Amino acid sequence: MSKADFQNKFDVSRETMDRLERYEALIQKWNPKINLIASSTLSEIWNRHFLDSGQLVPFAPTSGTWLDLGSGGGFPALVIASMTKDTCPELSFTLVESDTRKAVFLRAVIRELGLNANVLSDRIEKTSPQNVGVVSARALGPLSKLIEYAEIHLNQDGIALFPKGSSHKSELEQALECWSFDVETISSVTDLSAAIFAIKDIRRVK
Known about the structure:
Elements: H1 3-10, H2 14-34, H3 45-54, E1 63-69, H4 77-84, E2 90-96, H5 100-113, E3 117-120, E4 132-137, H6 143-153, E5 154-164, H7 168-175, E6 179-187, E7 195-204
Parallel strand pairs: 1-2, 1-4, 2-3, 4-5
Antiparallel strand pairs: 5-7, 6-7
C-alpha cells in the first residue's frame, strides 16, 4: 500500500498525512538502534503497521482516555492519535512500555507530532488501574492474558481492542474457559487470516 492509497482509504487530511510521514521518518531513524519493528517490514510500514493500526480508528471515542499496553514502536496508539488529533481533540492516549529505550522513542514521537499522549515507562503488572474507555494491545500476548489486563483497566462501559493473527479462533476458545465477555470479531483489512476482537462486559468465570 502506498501513502496515497492510505490517504484515500481513510480520507485523512494533509495535516494527518504530514504527521504520519514524520512518524515514519522517526521509525526509520531510530529502528537500527532499538529494533522498534522487524527490519523486514520497514519498507511496508504503511500497510503492515499504519493501515493495521488505522483500521481501529472507527472504535475511537471522541473523548476520554485510550490505554495502549506494551506499545513498542507505538502501534496502534500513536497512529490513531495522529489520525484523531484534529477530529477528537479531547481524546488522550496513555502508552505503557517497560523498555526504557522504546519509551524514550515514544516520547520523542509524541513531542515531535504534538500528540495528546503520555508514556508510562513501567511493567503492565505494576500499572495502577486506569479506568479508561478503551484498552488496546498489539502482538503482546495470548488473548486470555490481554483480557485479564483489560478487566483491570477498563471502566464500566469500556471496550478492549485486540488485533490477532491466524490463531485467533483458538485463542478465543481458550479465553472463554476463564472469562465471560461480549465479543465482536472483525476481519482484518491487512490479513485475511487475522481478526480484531472488540470485547466488552468482561467477567471472570473461574
